[in-house]
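so my prof wants the structure for this chain in the tokens format not the other one, which i didnt know existed until like an hour ago. anyway here's the sequence
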Amino acid sequence: MGISMQIIDPDHAIGVIKTQPPAGIILSGGPASVYEPGAPSIDKQIFKMGIPILGICYGWQLMAQLLGGKVESGKKEYGPTNLVTKDFHDLFYGSPKRSVVFESHGDSVMKLPTGFIVLASTPSVEYAAVGFPIPKMYGVQFHPEVHHTRFGKQLLENFSTRICGLAVKPVRLDLQAMISEIKEKVGSKKVIGAFSGGTDSSVAGVLVARAIGKQFIPVYIDSGLMRDETLQRIKNTFPKLLGTSVRIIHAREQFLQTLKGVTDPEQKRKVIGKLYIDLFQAEASKHQDVEFLLQGTTYADFIHSQGTKRSAHIKSHHNVGGLPKDLKFKLLEPLRYFYTDEVRKIGLKLGLAKEVVFQQPFPGPGHAVRIMGEVTAERLAKQVLADSIVVEEMQKSGQYAKIFQCWSIMTGANSTAVKGDGRFYGEVIAIRIVKSKDRMTADWARVPYKVLAKLSTRLVNEVPGISRVVYDITTKPPATMEWE
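here's what i got, hopefully its the right format
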């Protein structure tokens, strides 16, 4: 919204607030329970300073507990739910009476602190939104900051403008400032680029190429874990965009060997991340003055890999939590504090083609995290084929452009089928198709039945050893995008 803000740890909050009084305070969500030993807390002085406060999820629970309310485990809600608003002053100004919000909590406020009134409720949680208007303290149990909360941005805007008295300003991406920052940081050194050809690495790569020119060495590692067309796109599309050809390291056998016997999802991500780094370091040793490793890391990657000490570890992205501790490079991550939708805006401003900017995200560990259990050459070949069928049919039906991501999953579960009038026992394939804006929340796509029927028929008939197909209709949260 163009409003400047600062993220601070609650341990140091009072000191910072006294030194630089803000127009408003947001107490964020988090994975802890307020009644657990060592749970994050804050000095109660904060409620006597006359500064507007908005507590979100855990932040609201903490506020309630510190002000004399009661928080208990129970009335859990994960994913979308219906919010009914009762009070449209201030926080819900301009919002409809009924809307969809996204929740993700195991605890709930069961007794309100004195002075608070109910502003909105869900079917399971009476105190889904509350307020104490005179001291300007508010709490919401849902997450207004995520895209799938329909009027969440409106709520945050109301808090910032109507309650805190701030002005919303247009947000302008300053490409020249980003390029200048890269140039200043790198100096005369060289940058080796982890280049996959996906949206994030493409945008990051073009930014760096424009900043330092021939000092940039883009490298694509052909792991065999990416989609079939990726290698061809790397060869054909990017030399012109980057002003140089992309060096290709053929390492399919190495990745399969490294993944042999590995079944734990976290271990998969870490061994893949280590092998990538080993190969980049080997390539860097062939050049002089290589000091930086470019990665297309986004803020979603950072958050999921436990971005701060108060946040939860969801999964180790190979380019964040999967990195080895003895990394010999300095990391260059110009997109680290941007979400996917913002990265796409940067890409368009850089003049990248829409087919590059709006291609589907694809995980760095690739098909390895879409194969439950061990990744073998045989199972990888099946997954690559299945995934290509999903993409092809979505494109043919016109659905591909309407969704954020679509893919197949080798589930590792077996079921009985009838093939050729006889009993067949084979693996179950899952299909996941989602709509999202920034990967922080996602909803499953309501794909027409005839498209799902076509997918099912082709997958069972064309992918060897498949017994049946299931469609994943779980939102994020509670599910993550990938199964691993």
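also thought this was worth mentioning. The radius of gyration is 25 Å.
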